[in-house]
Every structure is written in structure tokens, then in C-alpha cells.
Design goal:
Layout (H helix, E strand, L loop, with lengths): L3 E6 L5 E2 L15 E6 L6 H7 L17 E2 L4 H7 L3 E2 L3 E6 L5 H14 L4 E5 L4 H10 L8 E4 L4 H11 L3 E5 L16 H18 L2 E6 L12 H5 L2 E6 L6 E9 L7 E7 L2 E4 L3 H6 L9 E8 L2 E13 L7 E4 L3 H15 L6 E7 L11 H13 L7 E3 L2 E2 L5 E2 L4 H10 L4 E5 H4 L10 E5 L2 H10 L6
Parallel strand pairs: 6-10, 6-11, 7-8, 7-9, 9-10, 17-18, 19-22, 22-23
Antiparallel strand pairs: 1-2, 1-3, 4-5, 11-12, 12-13, 13-14, 15-16, 16-18, 20-21
Helix pairs in contact: 9-10, 10-13
């Protein structure tokens, strides 16, 4: 078999006989890496033979609800769409030390406690090291949990066919190699072919496979982009490894919504669920201080109350800085322009910093009004209305636009003890609120909203 050298793009997998500065397929710069490549002489017939069923008419297919394996971790089950679908392939990515291996081992123990056989393939740790990590997590293992230290894909496939587990965990895909490919582990060819083989095995044996993937310094999954297209579900762990809270977010899910998140707390005994994240995110909020406000954002079906902070100070340089943590920078620039044009705030020489406390990334446009209010509060050194939740999308003309699922947000705020809710006037129409002490204040313009939030003027029912 003749071996040749090719250059592969680490972003999309495009191959070239020579090095290129820019990938012609995905336009990435300096993404080509050199690797040995040999065209596989066998394997095509074996792969084709795995497909037992031929084409059928769609109208003849009997739709049935797939049985899901419950992990007994409600936060993870919610993100997955209700549990693990049999035969699905789930890719878990995240920064080093964020908790990928930890949650995988915890899920393994939860599944084996239900009598489900699990094979944990540890390519980066020995069996003894994995046992030490399990003891630290307070898990002793069971008769259904098998652990092996192996990186050869052909042997891993043999183990799966011999043990016939219902769930397999690969830790991690970057160290697994196919002996039929001459390139080194972690290369574009190895990651692509190993993931394709594991996915094909999962579909033909109804084995659910978790694949742990490393990320690059830019935060993207290492390896070709096709890796994310092959698998059924892609989960990302967000959060700093030095912080105690982790957010598990689905960016792709063929069997559920991609809007759900799971919140975990990292402790000495592993990851534990945060059943009420709103209370956690607001627990350290200061009182009687300008530049802080509370809003409600939707993450799937779950409303989250988060604190938005802002600091506005005179710039010492010729160019004012704008920084946002957890909020879209382009959206921030737009809202600052609206405040300058429609409200007359002189922000052109001010440094503006906006932060969403707790490590949450806010994409809900309902947080626009809160961001505007918190910037104005810090600029004017005025404290916002106490015990108030601010909701609303801000238009370029300074109008406050309606938002979705208002009642869900209001009920969450009321449950946590908030007394006032400022929201778009159009969203107040046909709003049926049960008997409560929550004061609903409708606003239609940004000026009207800021007068109420910062001046605590009368409510407009």
C-alpha cells in the first residue's frame, strides 16, 4: 500500500497535496497540517455489509416513540431532550478541567445502578487512575461498569461486540486511532474516520455512545468540522474551570431542543445539579448600588433571572472602550447608540463595561431594556427601582417592543420575591395574572421606561 503526504485543514478536513495559507473550502487561515495518508484498500465492503435494511417507502415506516435511557441526572436529561436515545452518538466538548470526564463517569455509575451495562474506554488514563477518580467522586462501581485503557479502535470495536453494552463512553476521540490509517492520533483523518466508525457501530447495534472531544484555544472542537456533522448531539460545557458553576448547553440535537441548558456546581465530589439557578445567580447581588439590575431570560422552557451589571467611567484615552461579558458586543454598541441619540446621554467619551453575573451568555432580546437601564444607572449614579425585574426589546427608534412568554417570566420573578415588573405595554394586553402582589408596569418608549426605573415614578397599568 502506497503512503503519501497530504495537508489537511483542521477546520473542515479539506485536503491538498501542498501547504496552503488559506483553506479554499472554509477560508480558514493557517489551518493546514501535514499528515501521512494511505487510501484504504479494504473496509468498504465490510461497512456496506453492516447496513441490513434496504430503501423503504417513507409512508410504510411505522413511527414509534424511541425508548430513552434515563441518566437520573435531570439537568442532563433535560438538555438531551428527555434522556439518551438508543443508538445515538453524543459529543461532549469543553475546556480542560471543566468537567467532561467527571460527568461521564457519574453518568456511567447512574446507568449501571439501573442494571444497564456500560463500557468506559479511557484512552488518557490508566485503569488505576480512573479508579482513583471514581473513589474521589464517591463511586465504587458495579457489576455492570467495565473500564478499559485502550486507544486502538479495532480492539475497542471488538470489546463492544463482545460485551454488548448499552452505553459506551470514549475518553477522548483525539487519542483513539485506526490502525488502517497511517496518520497519527488526533489528525484530521484519524478523528474523522474513528468518529464515522463509532457512529456506524452505534446505529447498527443500538448502542449509545458518548464521545469526549478536546477544544482548541479558540473554544471550538478540535478536529474537522465534519465531526460535529457526524454525531447526533453536540453538548458544550461552558464556564471557567476556576469557577464553581458549569453550564451544559446543546448546540445540536437531533432528538430534542437546542435551547435547553443544564446548570451544575463543581464540588469535591464531582458535579451536582443546581435545581434553582435563579437564586444562585442573584444570591450575591449588592443592594443600593448603581449599575445593577435584574432581568429574566429564557433558556428553552426555563426562565432564568440574571443580574446585569454595568460600569461607566470617563475614558482616559482618545478612544472610548466598549466591553461585554456574556452579552453580544454588537448588540451593546447598538443600544449605546440608541441611548446617545434618543435619550441624549453623552456616552461618546465614556468607557462602558457590561457583565452578566454568573457566567450566563444572554442572547434573549428581552434583556435589551435592562442593559439600557443599567448603563444609564451607572452613568447617572442612580439606583434602580428596588425589587424590580426589567423586560423588553429596544428598537432603533427608542420604542419598547413586545416579548414572548411573559407570564412564565413573571411567575418566576414573583416566586423569588420581586414586587415590580417593567415590561412592554403591548405585552400587558390579554395578560392574565393570578392574584398576587406583583405590580405590572407597562412602558412603550425608552424614555418612559428609564423615568420609571431610575426615578421610581408611578406605574402605568
Amino acid at each position: 500500500m502506497r503512503t503519501k503526504t497530504v495537508f489537511s485543514c483542521s477546520s473542515c478536513g479539506y485536503q491538498s497535496p501542498k501547504w496552503l495559507g488559506r483553506c479554499p473550502d472554509c477560508n480558514s487561515w493557517n489551518s493546514f497540517t501535514e499528515e501521512d495518508y494511505s487510501a484504504p484498500s479494504t473496509g468498504t465492503k465490510e461497512r456496506v455489509s453492516l447496513y441490513k435494511d434496504g430503501p423503504v417507502l417513507l409512508k410504510d415506516v411505522v413511527a414509534r416513540d424511541e425508548d430513552r435511557l434515563k441518566t437520573n441526572v435531570p439537568e442532563l436529561d433535560r438538555v438531551l431532550g428527555g434522556g439518551i436515545v438508543k443508538g445515538s452518538v453524543i459529543l461532549i466538548g469543553g475546556d480542560p478541567g471543566v468537567g467532561k470526564s467527571t460527568i461521564s463517569l457519574q453518568v456511567s455509575n447512574h446507568l449501571t445502578a439501573q442494571g444497564i451495562a456500560v463500557l468506559y474506554v479511557s484512552g488518557e488514563e490508566s485503569v488505576a487512575q480512573t479508579k482513583l477518580r471514581a473513589k474521589r467522586l464517591g463511586e465504587s462501581g458495579s457489576d455492570k461498569l467495565y473500564i478499559v485503557n485502550q486507544t486502538d479502535l479495532s480492539l475497542i470495536v471488538e470489546y463492544i461486540r463482545k460485551l454488548k453494552p448499552q452505553a459506551v463512553i470514549i475518553d477522548s476521540i483525539q487519542v483513539i486511532f485506526d490502525p488502517g490509517i497511517s496518520s497519527s492520533p488526533g489528525s484530521v483523518s484519524q478523528v474523522r474516520e474513528c468518529a464515522a466508525t463509532l457512529t456506524q457501530l452505534a446505529k447498527t447495534t443500538d448502542t449509545s455512545i458518548f464521545i469526549i472531544g478536546h477544544v482548541t484555544k479558540e473554544g471550538a472542537l478540535a478536529g474537522p468540522r465534519v465531526l460535529e456533522h457526524i454525531v447526533d448531539t453536540v453538548l458544550y460545557f461552558e464556564g471557567d474551570r476556576f469557577a464553581i458553576y458549569r453550564i451544559l448547553r446543546a448546540v445540536k440535537n437531533r432528538f430534542g431542543s437546542t435551547n435547553e441548558i443544564g446548570v451544575f456546581e463543581m464540588g469535591p465530589h464531582g458535579l451536582s445539579e443546581v435545581k434553582n439557578p435563579s437564586e444562585i445567580f442573584l444570591s450575591e447581588r449588592p443592594s443600593n448600588v448603581s449599575g445593577t439590575i435584574v432581568t429574566s431570560v429564557l433558556e428553552g422552557t426555563r426562565p432564568l433571572l440574571v443580574e446585569i451589571q454595568s460600569l461607566v467611567s470617563r475614558s482616559n484615552f482618545g478612544y472610548a472602550r466598549r466591553r461585554a461579558q456574556g452579552f453580544d458586543f454588537n448588540r451593546l454598541s447598538l443600544l449605546v447608540a440608541v441611548l446617545e441619540k434618543r435619550m441624549g446621554l453623552a456616552l461618546e467619551a465614556e468607557d462602558i463595561f457590561v457583565n452578566v453575573a454568573g457566567g450566563i451568555k444572554v442572547e434573549d432580546p428581552a434583556a435589551d431594556l435592562a442593559v439600557c437601564a443599567v448603563i444609564a444607572s451607572s452613568f447617572r449614579e442612580q439606583v434602580v427601582m428596588p425589587q424590580a425585574v426589567v423586560l423588553g426589546e429596544v428598537g432603533l427608534s427608542g420604542e419598547i417592543r413586545s416579548i414572548s412568554q411573559v407570564l412564565t417570566r413573571i411567575n418566576e420573578a414573583e416566586r423569588l420575591g420581586f414586587k415590580h415588573c417593567i415590561l412592554p405595554k403591548n405585552s400587558c394586553r390579554n395578560l392574565k395574572v393570578s392574584k398576587s402582589d406583583m405590580e405590572i408596569i407597562g412602558v412603550s418608549t425608552l424614555k418612559e421606561a428609564l423615568d420609571i426605573i431610575l426615578g421610581a415614578k408611578g406605574a402605568m397599568k
